[in-house]
Every structure is written in C-alpha cells, then in structure tokens.
TrEMBL record:
InterPro entries: DUF6596 (IPR046531), RNA_pol_sigma-70_dom (IPR014284), RNA_pol_sigma70_r2 (IPR007627), RNA_pol_sigma70_r4_t2 (IPR013249), RNA_pol_sigma_r2 (IPR013325), RNA_pol_sigma_r3/r4-like (IPR013324), WH-like_DNA-bd_sf (IPR036388). It comes from Leekyejoonella antrihumi. PANTHER family: BLL6612 PROTEIN (PTHR47756:SF2), BLL6612 PROTEIN-RELATED (PTHR47756). Residues 190-290 form the DUF6596 domain. This is Sigma-70 family RNA polymerase sigma factor.
Amino acid sequence: MEAATSADDPTGAIIAAWRAESARLVGALTRMTRDVDLAEDLAQDALLAALEQWPSGGVPENPTAWLMTTAKRRGIDHFRRADNLRRKVAGLDHARGEEVAEMPDLDAQVDYIEDDVLRLIFLSCHPLLTVESRVALTLRLVGGLTTTEIARGFLTTESTMGQRISRAKKTLSEAHAEFELPTGPERTRRLDDVMAVIYLIFNEGYTATSGAHWMRPDLANEAMRLARMLAALAAEEPEVLGLQSLLEIQGSRVAARLDEYGMPVLLEAQDRTRWDRLLIRRGMAALQQANLLAARGKPVGKYFLQATIAAQHARAERAEDTDWGRIADLYDVLADAAPGPVVEVNRAVAHGRAFGPDAGLAVLAELGSGVLRDSPLVPSVRGDLLERAGLHAQAGEAFIEAAARTRNESERAVLHRRAELNLTHAAKPG
C-alpha cells in the first residue's frame, strides 16, 4: 500500500513539518524577538493554527514559510497588544530588512536561517544551565519534542520536566543570555558542551539507565538527527563529524540489539544482516570527511577516535572478523586523549579480546576499587573476562554484583542469566 500523501494525512504532514523545521522556526523567531520563551510560544501558536487550518484548507506548498508567516503575524499582534508596536515591529522588520506585510523567502536565506539554528543549539547548551536542563531544553527547542515526550524518555513526570524547562528558560532570560554565536576559545568550549549533550541523549536512548526497556530508540534517533544537523552547520569541524559518525554507526545496530522475544543481544551475538546499512554508509562518509579535515591539520578528539573504533566493528562482516588488535591500539590512544574510567573499562574489553582475558583483567585492576561503584559496567566486564578465562564461579559472582547495581530491568535479566549459566557451569563436576 502506498504511503499516505500530505493531502490524505494533513495531521501527519503537520507533525513532520514541525519536527523537521521547528528548530529553524524557533531560532529565527528568537533572533527577531530576542526572547526564547516568546519565540517558542509564537511557534506553538503557529503549530496550533496549522492543526486548525490545514485539515480543511490543505497543506501549503511551503509549510515552513507558512508557519513562519503565521508566527510572525502572531508576534506583531502580541507587540501591538503590549502597546509597543512601533518599537517592536521596527525591530522585527529591521532584522529582515522588509516591510511588515512582507515575509522572508526562507529558501533564499538558508544560510542565514541555518545560523539561527546553530545559535539556538548553543543557547540551549548555555554554561549557566545544568546538564539535565541543557538536555531538556535541547530536545524541546532544537529537537521539537513535546514536554510529554521528553518526560517519557527520561522516566519522569510531565510536570517535573515542564518545570525544568521553564526554569532553564527563566535562567537564560534573567541572565540576558545573548543569542549570538560565541567565538574563539569560548565557541570551542561551548561546542564541546553541545556535543556532550547530544552524546548523552544518544547514550540514554541506546542503553537506558533505568526502566523496563533496554533501549529508547526515539531518543537515539533524535540524537542522530541533532548530530546530523550540527554536522551540517559546523561542517569544517572533524569532531562534530566524528560525533555524527559515531552515533550513526552505533545507531545502525539498534534493530539487532533485541531478539524476537525482546531480550537484549550483545554485540558479538548480533545478526549483522540486521544492521542498518544506510546509517553505516552515512557514518562512514562523515568519518571519511573528518579524516580529510584531520589530514589538513584540524584537531580531532574523543568522538573522532570513538567513531574510528566503531568503524572497525562496522567493517567486520562477522564478529570473528573484528580486528581487536587495531581496536585495542585505538583505545590506548583514546585513553591518552580523553582519560576516564569508562574509557579504561572499554579498553579492558578490547585488550581482553585482542590479547586474552588476563590482559583485560590487568587493565581493570589498574582502575582500583570504588571506581564507577554505582554502575554495573565494571563488574559486568569483569564477569565477561572471567568467563572467557574459564573462571566460572568468579564470573557468576561478578555478574550477580553487576545485576544488583543496574536500574534497568532488561539489563538485570541478562546479567542474572549470565550469572546463572556460569554458576551452573562451575557446579558441574570437573
């Protein structure tokens, strides 16, 4: 059956247009009004108008221009009611160099509008905000997600998430945060913040920290979309391209990470024919472009290196074809470039595969006790390495410890199953 056209499904067309264009719309309105809260309200008003008018009047040829025109007219009405028509309308019009009645040709000003999106991303990740607020505001303003969708993704109530978003916008307003792109070292630092937020969103979608489900694909998909958007806006930054590559290559595995019963499937057991080849091609293309920029002297970092590691897995048609020696070498480089306990745990996995379980256990031993003690990561990797070394009783105990630490029900079930298998194996007479 053919997919429904926009004429057949105007509500679907509205949702698609909003999800695709809301960041550009809110960004342009924020630049015009210098008020992110008002800009979002105007954009939402335009969305409601579309929901009211498009089903009966038809989907306009240029949905983005229609939404922008409607939002700006609502903005003019707002300022008129506030008795600031002359000053505010002049500000709106001078921002576009036009008369009140004329609206911008968005298609002719793509670069300008795209700069608005980049400004919006940086504003959403302002250093005055907490990490949690940055994530929520990015999903709201840049991702176009509703408060309900964001709350569902992070397993909190709609009212709690709404308060978090409102506080974030109030913080920006009270600080008179500039809707301008930072420059120099400040831009680099803020770009790192932006990438970190997108990476955090993806990780929560790829492996949920809590709840009944192992993954939240909607969050992972939204993070990939944000990474592609950022890469299009900052196309000369190899780290941004590295982030896009990393997320798309890892995201290609989502369908293969659950079996037919909805149980998690670990990387080496996945059916690689189920990996999304389009996402892999996109990720590889972004990585190739990042490599070209790096060859010209552009600095690279942890996302580029992690994407290079992910590419090693993507190139292996079978798990046994994986070049673990190369991956171990790359993790050694990553450990120098971006040291941290999570990198060391992953380095332990790579060394365990490349040089034997004892080598991996030696890397883990260097971490010391108490590291990541609220996370199941260390004991689960220790259990895997002990299992590979044939020390099944110790492996079972490690998996039990990991299961006790996780807040994710699906992950807990997998860890308990691995613990049971190892303890059963250890109990068998030798």
